[in-house]
Amino acid sequence: MGWMADYRSALLVCLVLSDIEDEALTARNSAIATLMRAIQYAGASVTVLHTGWRDSPCAAALATLCIERGIRMEFLPDKPSPVFPAHMRTTTATFDWLGAQTFDVVLFQDRHAAGHASIIAKTCGIAFERTLLGVIALGSSARARERKGGFPREVGDVVVEYMERRAVELADIVIAESKVADWMMHGDWCLTRHLVDWPDPSAAPGMQAEWCRSTIGHLPASTLAPAASKSAEDKTDTTVIVTHWEQPRLVHHNLEALTAQTDKSFEVIVIDDGSTSEEAVRNLDALTERYSALKLRVIRQANRYSGAARNAAIRAAKTEFIILLDDDNVAYPNMVLTLRRAIHSSGADIVTCAIKHFHDQNGAPDPALWVDTREHHFSAGPLLAGIAGNCFGDTCGIYRRDVFDRMGCWFHEHHGVTYEDWLVYLQTVAAGGILMSLPLPLLWYRVRPSGVLHRANRTASTRLIAAAAEELPGRSLAPLTDYLIGTSEELDYRKASIRALSNTLSKVESNLAQRVQEVAHLAHRLTESDQNGADLQRRIGESEAAHRRERDRCAQLQLERDRLRAELDKVESARSQLQAAVVQRDDLIRSVYQSTSWKILRPIRAISRLFARAAKQ
After folding, report:
1. What CA–CA distances, in Å, run from 247 to 24, 240, 250, 414, 578?
2. Secondary structure of residue 503 in the 3-state scheme
3. In degrees rounded to 5, what are phi and psi of residue 10?
4. How far is it, in rounded angstroms, from Cα 431 to Cα 427?
5. Domain extent at residue 545
């Protein structure tokens, strides 16, 4: 893959940049702007991946620069799974994002070690085989700290500085100004890879394009990840050792995962550390026949704890490489293939891997259920961080068989004491051994309250690490002095912050007491208001009762009015009938008076009246 004239537009370059308080990143004539121009002059397509805060001033300035140059800018997405420890999040998320893209060249800013995981993966032959991975050395965290006269204030700072250095030492190419390169060489950084100076910002476009072609425009043979030969891939050179004690059901999940491995070039030894239960013994008797496809051997010994069990199995192994597993954990299908490829490609003495937690106490892990559980990643150094905590890896890893004899780093055999893997890693690295940790989870790690870490004597385990640290030379623990000074300053700073916070808290408490009094006064007034409200409510109730009584009385009066109105209607009807009868009577009388009979009888009535009067006289 190169800068051939017919394919210049097809070459894809990614610049991985983070937040940094430095004009070298954002100024119009800055080193980054000059690098962008040089790459574009050479005809390549540029993408910027920003790994810092989206809302930072640096991100805004970088976005403006990308718009001006017509460059696509992406922001690093979060991983779906939480990553522990925190200082491993950015580099592992960057590795995941790049793994889903296609680039010919990726250049990482040195600050914050975003390129560490990707460069380790390429060194181990598991990714980016045909991609040039370089570092843009603007100045590491350690250099920036020294220039400000500061000190590392926590273990995470020491680890990040270590990862920045390892990324530079293992990168295919390092672009650095002479003063930065001199600082790195003065610090004994191993700069055996391609070290080049920055392009000249005042040079003509053609000269800048030529600089680009001669530096990142091709993939030298020395930068290609070495691929294992076909014979090496097919050769059975690895033994997987599974330590077992009284967990017959869980060991089946472990061995079933080994039968599903994509690489079958391995043997299996199940080392039983003195199981005595009937179910466990019966299960061990049946393992060889049940898993005959695994070329499995079962070795039994009296209970001497896991360190002694591993040592016995390692001595019994006949292969060049050893992979160690605990019986309650479960391998990914590509674990053996990936670990074998990594140790062949890197030449390391030990290669560990990230682990994925799951919380099922008895069953096999279901990837669909545990997609958002913690991933534990390891930086594999430095020694100073390796004393404060295990930054090297879980027991699961691939070991060169001769590393135990050559360096005398066998697992301790103290009964009831753990950290045996941590101690082996610490002693191996201290003795000059090479240990790398892959940024890929290859193991399901079962988290349960009854695990060995909860049963072991924590104080005795920690004392073993402390005893090993006491035997290490002071220089191997650099920057121990700076770290101790930094932690002391950090402690003083936090004490001052606590004092300031205490003073603020006292003022807040005083204000709070005043507010409490005001609240009490308001509560008293509220109580009075409640009482007045109760009285008012009672009066309202009485008024409502009186209103209901009046309403009932009105209803009764309404009924009485309706009854009287009905009676009145009846009287009016009778009066009308009577008036009609009177009219009828008057009409009858008039008709009688006007009749002929009445007229004929009138003289007779008159004579009758005369006789009547005469009779009275």
Report:
1. 58, 18, 6, 21, 118
2. helix
3. -85, -15
4. 6
5. 483-585
Mean pLDDT of the region 598-610: 80
Q: Indicate the Cα dihedral angle 340, 344, 347, 350, nearest 10°.
A: 10
Predicted confidence at residue 525, as pLDDT, reads 86
The arithmetic mean of pLDDT across residues 89-101, rounded, is 97
pLDDT of residue 331: 98
**Separation in Å, CA 604 to CA 593, 600, 609, 610, 614:** 15, 8, 9, 10, 15
Task: Tell me the β-bridge partners of 45.
Answer: 12
Task: For residues 444 and 556, state if they share a domain.
Answer: no
- Give φ, ψ of 115 to 5 degrees: -90, -5
Q: Which residue has tokens 């890879």?
A: 193
Q: What is the pLDDT of residue 221?
A: 46
Closest CA relative to residue 30, chosen from 184, 183, 177? 177
Domain count, the chain: 3
pLDDT given at position 85: 96
Is 63 within a domain?
Answer: yes
In 3-state terms the chain splits into helix, strand, coil percentages (rounded to 5) of 55, 15, 30
Residue at a domain's end among 199, 223, 247? 223
pLDDT digits (tens, 9 = 90+) for 497-508: 888 888 888 888
Residue with tokens 């650095």: 176
CB neighbour class for 141 (10 Å; exposed up to 12, middle 13-18, buried from 19): buried
Give the CA angle between residues 493, 494, 499 to the nearest 5°.
Answer: 100
Residues facing 174 on adjacent strands: 135, 195
| The overall pTM is greater than 0.90 | no
CA distances from 449 to 66, 293, 361, 443, 565 (A): 51, 33, 9, 19, 92
Are 496 and 359 in the same domain? no
Render pLDDT for 232-245 as a digit per residue (tens, 0 to 9): 566 889 999 999 99
Q: What is the pLDDT of residue 5?
A: 35
Instruction: Give me 592's structure tokens.
Output: 């009688």
CA distance 397 to 416: 23
In this structure, are 366 and 490 located in the same domain? no
Considering the domain architecture, whether residues 128 and 246 belong to the same structural domain is answered as no
pLDDT tens digits for range 140-167: 999 988 888 888 888 999 999 999 999 9
Together in a domain, 89 and 212: yes
